[in-house]
Amino acid sequence: MNFLGRIKSELNKITVLRSLRFRLFIIIMAVGILCCLVMRFGIMQSYFNRAVDVRTSDVQNQIKILADHLITYNYLQDPTSDVVNAELNMLSNLYDGRVLIINNSFKVIKDTYNVSQGKTIISEEVIRCFKGESISNYDDNHNYIEMTVPITMTVGEETQVIGVILTSVSADSIVINQEILDRQAILIAILLLIVVFAIAVTVSRKVMQPFDKVTNAINAVKAGFTDEKIMADDYTELEHIVDAFNQLMARMKVLDDSRQEFVSNVSHELKTPLTSVKVLADSLNTQEDVPVELYKEFMADIVNEIDRENKIINDLLSLVKLDKTASGLNIESVDINMLMEAIFKRLMPLAKEQGIDLIFESQRQVTAEVDEVKLSLAITNLIENGIKYNREDGWVKVELDADHQFFTFEVIDSGIGIDEESSKHIFERFYRVDKSHSREIGGTGLGLAITRSTVLMHRGSIKVSSEPGEGTTFTVKLPLSYIQ
Ligand code: ADP
Description:
Helix content is 58%, strand content 18%. It is of the alpha+beta class. It folds into three domains: 78-175, PAS domain (Beta-Lactamase, 2-Layer Sandwich); 236-323, Orthogonal Bundle (Helix Hairpins); 327-479, Heat Shock Protein 90. Strands 2-1-5-4-3 form a five-stranded antiparallel β-sheet, sandwiched between helices. Strands 7-9-10-12-11 form a five-stranded mixed β-sheet, covered by helices on one side. A two-stranded antiparallel sheet has the order 6-8. A hairpin with a 3-residue loop joins β9 (395-402) and β10 (406-413). It is rod-shaped. The mean pLDDT is 90. The structure holds adenosine-5'-diphosphate. Adenosine-5'-diphosphate binds at residues 381, 385-386, 389, 413, 415-418, 426, 431-434, 438, 443-449, 472.
């Protein structure tokens, strides 16, 4: 991290600096101060420039009149004219300045300070002035306005420059005025800053108030005082945050409800076999001289119930594992035809026992990237259901096909079918269309939930279509290449 980055991260540790309210306050204050400064310097500078311009044009006018008098009194040849000398003195007193008259030999014939009289001045300004140019500039080091004005005479058609008036007048009075004005400007700026401060405090507090309101409302929800929706329509952005929060809360409520339902279902399902075991054991215990055959029969029932309890627990563990390891699939390239054949081989005894025909039809050889163990369990559940919920001499057929992106298999049976309403729920945990029938044939109501979770984890889809009394078809579509 560079030096600036380090400073930034150190500053970020100071809580108050991270507060939006504080930042807003600082921004308003900074803008206020900047405006005051720009206003003060802008106004002062333009006042000063204007005052110098006015003074310059005043003096220039006076000098032009003086230049005419110099010609009239032939002053350049004879600088003794009392009238002109008095006028010169008056001018230099009036503007607190110095006037030099230079003739066309660059010689100073009059200096109101009596310092440079008789000296020769050949400066750039004087030379330019002899060419007819009037020049003025402000010397900010010495606070003087310097001007050179040509003395011109018209001979016939021609205008000749016969001398130059070099003047420097003091700008002290302008500076003094500027200082007085500046003091007033500072006073106004301070008053303005007080107003800006009050605005910054009020605005930053007001703007942030809705955020405080929402924080309090969220805290109330967090503390459990209320589970009502939070309302905030002050700002669009805040509305979006509040909407997202409300949706999150609604989703959490759904999750919480489904978790509670799941827990109560699990307890109920686990309790049922235990209750049967207790009833069987109790009836053996309370009877005297129980015949051995009855003992054996009851014990066989108890073992069945324990097997059932075991199956429920195993199914639950598979389901929980699927939930937990959504990203933990063990993906490898699997020959799906071989996988199907292995499943068929395993299920053949069960099918035979029920008098069901198992048929496998494959349109092509399919190899796909899947988790072999999990997918095998999912397919087994579907085929097992086809066998379990079938009629006498029925059949279960699996059809496998693929295109260049997906492979599809359909598990079709000639069984009892599922009505439309129930088919909406069969993928839910513990849902069974006919509880007692499912229980009789050893169902837990978890098989299809496990299958669905597995298919979704492979980014696939599962659909069911069924006609009660005719049969059921489950269609599963999975990508050939695993999508992360
Ligand atoms: P179970 O362990 O009860 O079979 P499943 O989750 O596998 O649980 O299935 C849920 C319910 O869906 C079953 O109880 C059954 O009522 C119905 N069902 C599933 N497959 C079929 C099928 N092939 N034909 C008819 N009903 C089915």
